[in-house]
Structure prediction request, 76 residues.
Amino acid sequence: MSTHVDIVTLHHWVGGAPDASTAERFGEVTESATGQVTARVPFATAETVDRAVRLAADAAVSWGQSSISQRSKVLF
Prediction:
């Protein structure tokens, strides 16, 4: 019995949206029960990581100034 699984490419989530940068290298995501490859994920470049950290630090300022009720709405 043979099954076909489409291998999707996952993306980093940076600044509230999927990251559109291109990658040269990818890692495999496997189904732990079978070992079958189900997806691939790009290895982030240093620039992508720097941008993600910078945007997260900027977002932390406004998040920290949000009320508990505003934060609860986002989380729930």
About this structure: The CA atoms of residues 1 and 34 lie 14 Å apart. The chain has two helices and five strands. The longest strand covers residues 37-42. Residues 46-64 form the longest helix (19 residues).
